[in-house]
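Re: the request from the purification team.
They wanted to know what the chain is likely to look like in 3D before they choose a buffer screen. I agreed to run a prediction and write the result into the notebook, where they can find it.
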Amino acid sequence: MWWSRPDVAAEDGGREVYFEFTAIGRTVKVSAIDSATGLEVSVVGPATASQADLQHLALQKLKAQLSRRFP
């Protein structure tokens, strides 16, 4: 398990989003955590997928949850 550096999603008003990548066999679990609300979402993908693709998928899921919970 490792943490990537905090990435700032400019579309979210400059909020920091933290990403955690955890290898589980031939898959990777990616958690995205919004620093302002503490909301966390996770996605699972193949270990062969690029880090950028999995991070983008997790960020999109986080944005969707934020828009549902904080309209």
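For the purification team: The CA atoms of residues 6 and 18 lie 5 Å apart.
Please add any questions underneath this entry.
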